[in-house]
Amino acid sequence: MSNDPRYHKTKRWIEKKLVPFENTMSHTPPITNIPLKGDWIFSAHPLVWQAFVLFGIIFKRPPGFTLHASWVLKEIENRYGILPWITTLDKLKRSQKKQGEERKQWYADEGAWFLEHEENRAIISPYRVIIEYLSALSKPAIGILSRINNSPRFTVKLASFDDFASLQEQRAEESILRMERLLEQQIQDEKKQKQKEQAKQEKRDQRDADAKRCAGNLEAMFHAGASQASFCPCCRAAFNAVVTECSECGKRQMRTLALDESELETLYHRIRSYPCLDNHP
After folding, report:
1. Nearest CA-CA partner of 251 in 280, 217, 221, 212
2. Which residues does residue 146 pair with via DSSP β-bridges, in sequence order?
3. What is the tens place of the pLDDT at every residue in 8-39?
4. What is the dihedral of CA 41, 47, 49, 54, to 10 degrees?
5. pLDDT in tens, 110-122
6. 3: Cβ contacts below 8 Å, ≥ 6 apart
7. What is the DSSP string of 120-142?
8. CB contact at 8 A, 41 and 83
9. CB neighbours of 113 closer than 8 A, spacing ≥ 6?
């Protein structure tokens, strides 16, 4: 099929058609030559018959026009034809299914009861191939058609290739804006997270510094002869006497220590680990 002059002619025509919209179409799903199961059953390359459906049928109808898959199939069959043995098998399968209905028996997908299950399934329906292509054009990423309640009928949404290209351009611009907003939000989130981590680190550093200052003051009191002292776990203020209220921050969470050599060894770590209960609900 790729050696068919119609294929090369159609390919060149479509490529020329896409040139003005090359940037817009670069990230757009294909609208012709879409791979489909059984797309080879027509007597023309899939690019050829799909281009005919798109440009020769769909884009010549106004928005809101209803297409039926059977009518589209008839147009393709009249223009290009179907491989004869496909037609023979398809008619055989459908006639057997019709015969089953008349006998009030249902062969379901089996069709020809005298064929194996795999053989029946291997018979390709031209009707289904057309439905698959029209359904592909109905996907949100393309949006040329709209399928009506999962039926074989489709509504034309975009009546020209220019309309399709404009829609893709609009979607591309919206995608860029979404990406820009997402990137901006990500930058803001990272900035807030960094500030949050920085605030936590500053708080830890301040806690370390306050604990070291308090431990140093208590150690100085011990060397000055004090045997008991108090400190505030909230502001880490130290006092060389037993007190119940901090004169620095006014909190009544004082801790009393018996100052001796063994206390001094772990003094800093214990002071740092004491929580200020007012900071915890």
Report:
1. 280
2. 155
3. 888 888 888 777 666 556 666 788 889 999 99
4. 140
5. 666 677 777 777 7
6. none
7. HHHSPPHHHHHHHHHHHTTSTTT
8. yes
9. 96, 100, 107
Residue for token pair 């309640």? 149
Using DSSP bridges, classify how beta strands 66-68 and 153-156 pair: parallel, antiparallel or unpaired: antiparallel
- Per residue in 160-204, pLDDT tens? 888 888 888 888 788 788 888 999 999 999 999 999 999 999 988
Query: What does each C-alpha distance from 153 to 67, 88, 138 come to in angstroms?
Result: 6, 25, 11
Give the side-chain half-sphere CA count within 13 A for 16.
Answer: 6
Nearest in space to 156 (alpha carbons), one of 75, 58, 55: 58
Q: Return the closest-CA partner of residue 240 out of 257, 253, 252.
A: 257
Question: What pLDDT sits at residue 27?
Answer: 61
CA distances from 276 to 48, 190, 242, 249, 258 (A): 79, 30, 18, 12, 20
Residue 170: how many other CB atoms lie within 10 Å: 11
d(CA 198, CA 206): 12
Burial of 119-158, coded b for 16+ CB within 10 Å and e otherwise, reads ebeebbbbebbbbebbbbbbeeebbbbebeeeebbbebbb
Contact assessment for residue 271 and residue 231, using Cβ atoms and an 8 Å cutoff: yes
| Coil/strand/helix, residue 238 | strand
Asked if residues 9 and 31 have their Cβ atoms less than 8 Å apart, the reply is no
